[in-house]
């Protein structure tokens, strides 16, 4: 196994095998060693080897790449971009392909496809860059008519970056501008009152298979399950498995598989839901590369389903090798 980090400038660098250095300690995220040797993937499918580039030296091959586990969130890593690179190189990889990754990354297209598949979604409006620049007032009018309380999000960002909960219509414009720092395309979603946040994992074992469900309970200090609550502190309680009736859990699991299949996802995903007090199950979104930190929900849901962390990783790698690359 060769861990590779990607710098903010886009350089691929070797990171060594010290797993502890890649862990989160005291709320501090690990950083990439920018001074490490640079590497590059040879995209010639007949070679597909990893090349190391040292200053004033001839590039050296570290050998052919068997499989890649792209543990990356957000643009360039989860949106079909790196998946396209690996397809060109003929290198198998864990997770969804170009199409599934791209569709799941764009919350506007994702929700439109969910609706076509007959899945209930939160009421929403999409504001493109052109719409915002050419007629800002028309865009604001559309989102003001959604609901008293809304969530403003970048349409194609990950890890809850750039999200604002807006309770005052007068603050909508500022929230949209804040989201546009991350993505010129913005989605605004209506709040669902008194809903439980339920998640379900999906992997492929011949056919898509759903895990036990889990629930997120956000405690005081956070208005919603934001970046800090996800990665840096313990302000959210993760209940695994969720306290659901057998019938309701089966319904959520079936809907998770439908959502997974509707976007042509592969390998793995985590599907997020809202369950209302009336028992309606609403799909919030899908993540094609869910978190794998010690406090992440995805591995915990599969552990509760009888598949521990090492077995889960092994299964995902074997699935990637079996699936291969190219049209399928």
Structure write-up:
This protein is of the alpha+beta class. It has three domains: 4-65, no CATH class; 102-120 and 193-323, ATP-grasp fold, B domain (D-amino Acid Aminotransferase, Chain A, domain 1); 124-190, Dna Ligase, domain 1, CATH 3.30.1490.20. The chain has ten helices and 14 strands. The protein has helices at residues 81-89, 98-105, 107-116, 129-134, 136-144, 172-180, 227-231, 246-262, 297-304, 309-323, and strands at 4-6, 12-14, 38-41, 49-53, 60-64, 124-127, 150-154, 164-166, 186-190, 196-205, 207-218, 236-239, 268-275, 281-287. The strands form four sheets. The chain has a five-stranded antiparallel beta sheet. Strands 6-9-7-8 form a four-stranded antiparallel beta sheet. Strand 4 (49-53) and strand 5 form a beta hairpin. The radius of gyration is 20 Å and the shape is globular. The two termini are 27 Å apart. The model has no long low-confidence stretch (mean pLDDT 92).
């Amino acid at each position: 196994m060769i861990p590779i980090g990607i710098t903010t400038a886009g350089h691929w660098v070797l990171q060594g095998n010290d797993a502890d250095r890649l862990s989160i300690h005291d709320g501090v995220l690990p950083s990439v060693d920018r001074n490490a040797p640079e590497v590059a993937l040879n995209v010639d499918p007949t070679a597909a080897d990893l090349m190391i580039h040292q200053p004033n030296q001839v590039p050296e091959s570290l050998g052919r790449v068997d499989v890649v586990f792209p543990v990356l969130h957000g643009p360039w890593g989860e949106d079909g971009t790196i998946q396209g690179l690996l397809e060109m190189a003929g290198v198998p990889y864990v997770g969804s392909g170009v199409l599934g990754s791209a569709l799941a990354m764009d919350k506007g297209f994702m929700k439109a496809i969910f609706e076509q598949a007959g899945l209930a979604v939160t009421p929403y409006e999409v504001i493109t860059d052109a719409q915002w620049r050419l007629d800002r007032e028309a865009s604001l009018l559309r989102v003001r008519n959604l609901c008293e309380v809304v969530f403003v999000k970048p349409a194609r960002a990950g890890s809850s970056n750039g999200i604002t909960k807006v309770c005052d219509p007068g603050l909508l414009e500022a929230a949209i501008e804040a989201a546009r720092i991350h993505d010129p395309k913005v989605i605004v979603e209506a709040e669902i009152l008194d809903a439980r946040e339920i998640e379900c994992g999906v992997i492929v074992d011949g056919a898509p298979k759903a895990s036990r469900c889990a629930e997120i309970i956000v405690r005081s200090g956070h208005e919603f399950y934001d970046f800090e609550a996800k990665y840096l502190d313990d302000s959210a309680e993760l209940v695994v498995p969720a306290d659901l009736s057998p019938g309701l859990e089966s319904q959520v699991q079936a809907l998770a598989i439908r959502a997974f299949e509707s976007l042509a996802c592969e390998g793995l995903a985590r599907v997020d839901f809202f369950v209302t007090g009336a028992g309606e199950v609403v799909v919030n979104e899908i993540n094609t590369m869910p978190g794998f930190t010690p406090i992440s929900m995805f591995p915990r849901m599969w552990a509760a389903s009888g598949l521990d962390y090492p077995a889960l990783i092994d299964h995902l790698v074997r699935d990637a090798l079996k699936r291969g690359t190219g049209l399928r």
